[in-house]
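Why show two proteins at once? Because comparison is the fastest way to build intuition. When a single record is shown, students tend to memorize it. When two are placed side by side, the eye starts asking what differs. So, the first record is below.
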Amino acid sequence: MIANSLLATAKLVAGIVGHSNALVADAVESLADLFSSVIVWRGLVVAAEPADADHPYGHGKAEPIASAVVSTMLLLAAGSIAIQAAFEILRPHHVVPSAYTLLVLVVVVALKESLFRFVMREGISVESSTVRTDAWHHRTDAITSLAAGLGIGIALIGGERYAAADDIAAVAAAVIIAWNGWQLLRPAMNELMDASPDPTFADRVSRIAADTPGVARVEKCLVRKMGYLFYVDMHVEVDPQMTVQRAHEIAHDVKDKVRRELPAVHDVLVHIEPAGQKQRVRGQNSEASG
């Protein structure tokens, strides 16, 4: 947040004084980064709160909500930048951006790419879509700064005839921002809709459960993500002749083993099924129909 504040201020001042609309647009994107970081921070704080009477499954949905809000902010910022730049392109240009604005952009690109790598590494380590979304804000900022640098460079080389290149670069930057905003909004909406995560994760859960002593077969395994935690619902087949007590113990063994080997799994709901029961039912139905 401190880095975004300093960078946004530096780019805004340099863009206004140096007559660069692309740099001003880049500053607006950095300001959006600042507000998005505040939203991400609060979203993570709320998501980390324990379950209560009103939210028995916890507050994990606060994280994808924050991610969706941040992504929407990117889309709105892109629209605002594109409209402003389009008006500037239609107006005749007589002022070329100052050369020192390129130096500002070089520093900005280096810092924002470093921030992207740091935040993305943290987001992957905690499996947080919101933190990864915030990381892409930094990468987007670096990309828009490169686009602004290209436009300013063309305007400086070509003179007043190519002064509009600065504004064209701003439009290009807005397109990049909008694309990234949309790409980041989709996974957040999927998480809010309880879409299944990576299928390989459910496969890992099934294999762990199937290797638990007493488990004959894993019939069904459903996984949903809430914040940076996973919730699992599964049907496990056991010997139909065993006692309820033993089946209950196996269900707890499955739950404990999955949570132990996959710490990101917060809870596992195990439904016990009698092994071979469905096959027998299907066989009886076939005989009856015959």
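Second record. Ask yourself what differs from the first in the token line.
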Amino acid sequence: MIVWGIYFRDTTPREYPAVTPEEIKALPDFRGAGILEEHSGSVGPLTARMAPVIIVYFCSGWTLWLY
């Protein structure tokens, strides 16, 4: 747990010593962690995209439970 906490942290690639200056120049600007794009909050488009997955998962679960 301690090793994981030290190794996996929310940092930018610019802070890693293995990243070369050429790679840093090629990176896009870092806007900071926790900044999210604003969304309208509508669940309609998400539901439409997820409907096939939901149906297949439901049918698969029902079949596995039945048999």
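One difference worth noting in the second protein: The chain has a mean pLDDT of 80.
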